[in-house]
Amino acid sequence: DVSGSGNNWAVGYKTYGDQYHEEIIDIVRKSAEQCDCLQSFFIIHSMGGGTGSGVGTKILNLLQNEYPDIYRFVVAVFPSDDDDVITSPYNCILALHELTEKADCVLPIENQALLDIC
Q: What SS3 class is residue 110?
């Protein structure tokens, strides 16, 4: 539980996403109840690692199921060209599939572009 998803989208999505499903929904529900006029969810997550891509898209799926009429905006941070994680392309493709199905708007950002700003 301490090491994350081991750079594996499936572990993040199925193992941790299912394991923490109720806790995630409970936290979101409590926050949503405090809103006067909930209009959208804004999610920021990485696409290359297992936890960001897997758990991030699982949360997106849960939001679609629990709040189908609320917009879901996603900022997806893609790995840079020199990323040393061998499973990054695999994680990105699986996460992209979920984004195309579940997100209302995706704002892609490349990690290298963020680094170049600094």
A: strand
